[in-house]
Amino acid sequence: MIENVMGAEPEMRDPVLLCGAYFGLNTYRHRLFEPGGWELKRPDHPEHVRRQTKMGRRRKPDEMGIYVGNFIGVDDAKEDLGVPWMSREGIRECIPPAYTEYVGKAFLEQLH
Q: Low-confidence residues of the chain, pLDDT below 70?
């Protein structure tokens, strides 16, 4: 499995987009996944109906967080991404556990 950010799409072979909204997260955090030798189902990409927080500001309850760079609201990010153990540095780079669980379950289903 190869995971990458949206800018890498031209270099990938038919990647599958995962979006935080699909998993009920308070962030869109798009990531691309390219499975090697097995199939990963493309989930429906939910419409982005909630505004994203402006850079440098704390996420409001009706907004989706953007957790890149030196973002504000580490505690919100930990909750929004499901990573209570992570530091700011880890959060900036992380793949939310919900994405990993989705990919892992799909892989295990194909082993049987």
A: none
